[in-house]
Amino acid sequence: xxxxxxxxxxxxxxxxxxxxxxxxxxxxxxxxxxxxxxxxxxxxxxxxxxxxxxxxxxxxxxxxxxxxxxxxxxxxxxxxxxxxxxxxxxxxxxxxxxxxxxxxxxxxxxxxxxxxxxxxxxxxxxxxxxxxxxxxxxxxxxxxxxxxxxxxxxxxxxxxxxxxxxxxxxxxxxxxxxxxxxxxxxxxxxxxxxxxxxxxxxxxxxxxxxxxxxxxxxxxxxxxxxxxxxxxxxxxxxxxxxxxxxxxxxxxxxxxxxxxxxxxxxxxxxxxxxxxxxxxxxxxxxxxxxxxxxxxxxxxxxxxxxxxxxxxxxxxxxxxxxxxxxxxxxxxxxxxxxxxxxxxxxxxxxxxxxxxxxxxxxxxxxxxxxxxxxxxxxxxxxxxxxxxxxxxxxxxxxxxxxxxxxxxxxxxxxxxxxxxxxxxxxxxxxxxxxxxxxxxxxxxxxxxxxxxxxxxxxxxxxxxxxxxxxxxxxxxxxxxxxxxxxxxxxxxxxxxxxxxxxxxxxxxxxxxxxxxxxxxxxxxxxxxxxxxxxxxxxxxxxxxx
Length: 545
Prior knowledge:
By secondary structure, this protein is of the alpha+beta class.
């Protein structure tokens, strides 16, 4: 896939590019909004529903709901490149710039004209508590800490009232908590229908005081354009299709919100959250409503933020990383497999470092010969390299994500804690490396089954193998060859390939019968009594079997 220059691309141009790549399908016949979520779930491509019954706006969904669409969204040529783009944004942020005009100001609704029920906000899972705004990029400002951007969901309750799900400890929750304690609302802008650059930037949990829109600019390679809100001193994303200007009310975490189908692929429970009063809706005349479809649309761009956090933690710990896999089975949030170029003791160091990254719950660390993207290879490493009492680390009482269904129920407002688990599946110190030499078949580089299926025939060796006289002469040649260096049986067979294999086997048998053949500690053939010859273990020492 050719790498694209998309740094100045807007939301609609991205949709056009998806359409050109046959990754977006237009549905022009009338569709009931209650059917949208399941239709997107069944679809192979993103869907743009042009005629949503009862609404004047179209709905698009599923635009980053696959690996390939996630790659396309940031103009990358491979999925790992997404992590590099994110790291570029973190290392080289570009501050946003304020523009004076924005297309989403074509329609401005306040007061009695404001009506969230006119927006085509779909239901999703069968147990959802109500229509959920799922793709809003939220910008907030704290008097001390500055700007924060993030992605949060809003359950529509009234025509100008929603909830906001901020049960998880994060910067947005801190801003809302500080406003609540001061007895004032917390102003926010909610930009819906933005480019994935802004979605990814806002999805990265940056330290306090770091503007995620500057990170989004670094990812994009150009400043994110922001516009001023109409009813409050706060910016919003200028390219957005729809913007809600709102305030988190100082009600505290007292209002029921949810349930909702979460990134965990499970139904979340009822949460207690603050209320949000919407003061204005600004939108394009022909706005497209974007409904982010859970869970996979959340996962494909969320996982790279974990890659970046883990890689940074390991770099700070001085560990050389080969590969990282934040697995889909771990919902793109909780599980990581890390391969390292290990030095003594670094398996445990790598575990402890990786477990500090965001909400990572379980980490497996393997050697660099293990393919972290092959679950069979990883399981094999666990099976062959782990002793539970030595290599499994359990850290109790760590901060946990409230959406983890395995946690005990906690009272509203209480941050839950849980266990983090690390498995050191690297080869332990003091264990011979030769124990872990993989099976490899001889001649794999030149003996190809396809050639034989097509009729290839091997030429017979020069010398037949059943003659005992030949075997006796060959035995002497073999003994002379292995006197200077032990050799594997296969090496001997290859070195004396001018003889039929039977002749080699007979010659080795002759050496053994004459008491001249032995093996070294690695199983290679050597002369009996030579300095290479292995010695049997003393009684009680056992063997390496």
